[in-house]
Amino acid sequence: MSRPHDGQRTFFPFGNPFRIILPKGSYLSPKLLALLNIFEQTLAESLKRLKPKNASDVLSLSWMSHAMESLSEAHANIKTLITDLQFPVSDWDEKWIDIYLDCSVKLLDICIVFSSELSRLDQGQLLLRYVLHVLDSSSSCPSSEQLKQADACLHDWVKQLNLKSPKFENCSSILQSLSQTLDFTKVKNSAKGKVLMTALNGVKVMTIFICSVFTAALSGCFTPLMDMNVSDKFLWAEAFSDLQAVVNEEVRSQFSSGKITMLKELEAVEKCVDRLHALTSVSHNYETLLQSGCKKEEKLLQSDGIRHQEVGTLVKSVDPEESEGFQESVSNMAEEAERFGNGLDLLAKQVRDFFQIVLTGRDALLSNLRGSDVTRESSVDEIRP
């Protein structure tokens, strides 16, 4: 269980669970030790690559995509390790199987929440695409009706952005329960089991950490962040501790500064939307006042030094500086929205890939269990008189 400490969440208050997985005196053959060392070194390198050169990049879609890709690789490496160990599921302790199945279904639930949130953000892109369609850059002077439509869509986008899924609360509780499964009792009478459980715990620490950062970034709440202490006897421990320190410090710093939007690319879009929203709102309201107060037969209006020209029943601003600034805002939003959309697509793909890896591993284990049951039943039938 975890308990609060100085406003932060530090796990394993009753000691380090890793210390009891491979206690002093545990014997591993050179072959098994070599397999474990290779796995841990690979995990360490993966964690090192995740440490950003610039701490602010932690909350970017590109870093998150890289993190999810690394997580998929780590889980795929577990499958390779099981094959290299020649350690079939039929030889596993029932407790390991129960823990694996429980953890895998919880990871699938977290992936579903992540995918749902990314899909919601992507739906918001439709509103921005419509705004850009309405405020076509080829038209230097949008009509009052166009400004009205764009203003309404931008308002809806801001409103949708501020909605947060309540499912993220469930993610936090899932991550806490996953951390509790790290507290294994000593693995007995199975050298291969010791290697597998040690490797699984390393991947599980990485998984809990990355998912906690994702949950914080997507939910706009730092509560899911965790501070996990691991034994320095593991080859990946230093790399993990360094990464965790940098990432958690940056995320907490962003929250303490009062920021609500955590994703770097989304924040850039939001700034453009706020700027354009202000312009469309002011321009639309101003032109509405002009139209309501003018006479239809008048061909030219002068107000506050800004010239307006009536074309039919439509009043258009023809101030060069105002038009140029407006179109610049439209262009900036188009660029940032495209960058954000590309980042969303890549991250969504990585989440789907991770989901598939976890699901495939779970299905394979269940299939092997069913096969083992059939084999045992056949053996029993053979020895019956």
Automatic annotation (TrEMBL):
The membrane topology term of the UniProt record is: Single-pass membrane protein
What parts of the sequence cross the membrane?
A: 195-218
* Signal peptide start-end: none
Q: Which UniProt keywords apply?
A: Membrane, Transmembrane, Transmembrane helix
Pfam families assigned: ROH1-like
For this chain, the family text in UniProt reads: Belongs to the ROH1 family.
Query: What's the protein called, per UniProt?
Result: Protein BPS1, chloroplastic
Species this chain originates from:
Cocos nucifera
